[in-house]
Amino acid sequence: MSRLDSFIRRLQAQRACLDxxxxxxxxxxxxxxxxxxxxxxxxDHLRAILPHRDIFVFERAVAAHPDCIxxxxxxxxxxxxxxxxxxxxxxxxxxxxxxxxxxxxxxAASRALxxxxxxxxxxxxxxxxxxxxxxxxxxxxWRALALPDGVEPxxxxxxxxxxxxx
Amino acid sequence: MSRLDSFIRRLQAQRACLDxxxxxxxxxxxxxxxxxxxxxxxxDHLRAILPHRDIFVFERAVAAHPDCIxxxxxxxxxxxxxxxxxxxxxxxxxxxxxxxxxxxxxxAASRALxxxxxxxxxxxxxxxxxxxxxxxxxxxxWRALALPDGVEPxxxxxxxxxxxxx
Lengths: 166, 166
Fold this sequence. Notes:
The structure is a homodimer of 166-residue chains.
Chain A: H1 3-24, E1 32-35, H2 41-49, E2 55-59, E3 75-77, H3 80-86, H4 88-91, E4 95-101, H5 107-121, E5 125-134, E6 142-144, E7 157-161
Helix pairs in contact in A: 1-2
């Protein structure tokens, strides 16, 4: 499989997981959190499939297509290690969906970064919230969900935040 | 359609056109020319589907994944407006496939750049050669080919260089 093949499969997996997540949270209230704006493609997809949700984007420095930049009051600029702790009060256990795409091409570094960020993201999410991520995450109380049909295990990841009783 | 949807379709169209081009040139000799290395994904795809061809890559400055950088003797570094005229003697009417992906996100600028480069590329190609391009190109003697099934008109472009008698 060429890198072009692999990249297409990764994007298809990403889209399938976002679409599945949108269905899974349909009956729950709360905003959506996008970690990393990048070129804005997944933000654009999220607002297309979740037109009635507030979507907040965390990004270090905006470099997206001009059509794909969120309004200033929904853009949280800065390093996640600083902006996530500062966002705890604002989003405390309210967010219903989080998308974390920080795969950098260097698997070990991506996993280490994700592992350091996940405990900072967890307090923002409500019970029943869905997390869509690459790389994989291991957080107490987050249960891995089956992937949509056609998505190979390991290409993208879906988790559901447990309810307190679980 | 979101930008994520659109991007996936573009990559699928690109791959389908490259795969089709590889079949179309199967009975013709000659090297393959890749204009723009970028991250190296399409170069990696070309060498996967054309393992017995010499593939030469023209690139201004290499920023590809380390696994996707061609050997130094097949990498032609510099601005295409300088390296293409200099390559006429080396490739004079010998290349069998050219892939030009210079869509920059700004359609008018991409088309103007492609229009200025196409006359410099044409002398490198043999009769019967196939050109895969985005944006579209208009070159005397290049005939637009039907796109593979599933590729929407305008997403990517295929041309065949006419034989002298055509």
